[in-house]
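Aim 2 progress update. The chain analyzed this quarter is reproduced below.
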Amino acid sequence: MHTHTSKGGFLGRAAARSAGVPVIIHTAHGFAFHEDSSKAVIKTYAFLESRAARWCDRITTVSDFHRKWALRLGIASNEKIVTVHNGIAPDRLEVNTSSAITRNAFGITDNQAVIGVIGRLAPGKGLEVILDSFPGVLAKHPQARLLIVGDGPEADSLKSMQANLGLTGKVIFTGFRQDIGNILNACDLVVSPTLREGLSVSILEAMALSKPIVTTDISSNKELVEHMVSGILIPPLDAAALTQAIISLIDDPGRAEQFGENAFAKFQSCYSEKMMQEKMWMVYKELIDNTVPND
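Predicted structure tokens:
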């Protein structure tokens, strides 16, 4: 059995162990706690994770940061926990429409700067910060447009905030989209103001399409984006820093293009779907070979 998520992983591992499942693997896509959690919260959830770790044969984390953190917290031994980075399938980001056509569908022209934010509209994603930052971007670049791509429980409150900030027509909520490749192709840069992540799929998608990235300097993001090499890292919840980072990339398209090329090179070397599948298969094979008897 292979379990995912904190709650599902705890209950699933307990049930699988009770049922005598011979091989149990859990993937931690982050933890129920994060870097800004209180010491009491971290201690409590780390204890629960350490208990659940006894009920499985291997834990995989999607980032090196979370593996190292788990080791420091005593959740599992060095031998039990390994990193298998997230990967992106090539067909996930198919581009079959020109940038001009995609932009035109949103009323955007070729000479306007387009900033993309892609992901679930949910707490912890820092989306209020990008809205707070955008009036400052418009003060320097009044033709810039912000695409917020996705849906979720925060959609209505974010749209209300958009109206209160006078950003109607400047910020475009696209809703859920399946053509992420086309959307990214139409963007000049991608912003991820997230407060916590396992390993951000939206950043990986931007890297796969050679987009410069502005994101927060939380530990897992720093694995993906090298500051001033493939993007710009800013403190979480810092709208002023986000404004300046976006403006700096709009003002210097040559540097933005180089950041995008560097991001793509790192994606190719570390985060393809094939690499993820091969690493996970090695985990499966090792455990099955060592646990399940041959007939």
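The beta strands are 2-4, 25-28, 58-61, 81-83, 114-118, 145-149, 171-175, 189-192, 213-216, 231-234. Residues 90-270 form a domain with the Rossmann fold fold (CATH 3.40.50.2000). These observations will guide the mutagenesis experiments scheduled for the next reporting period.
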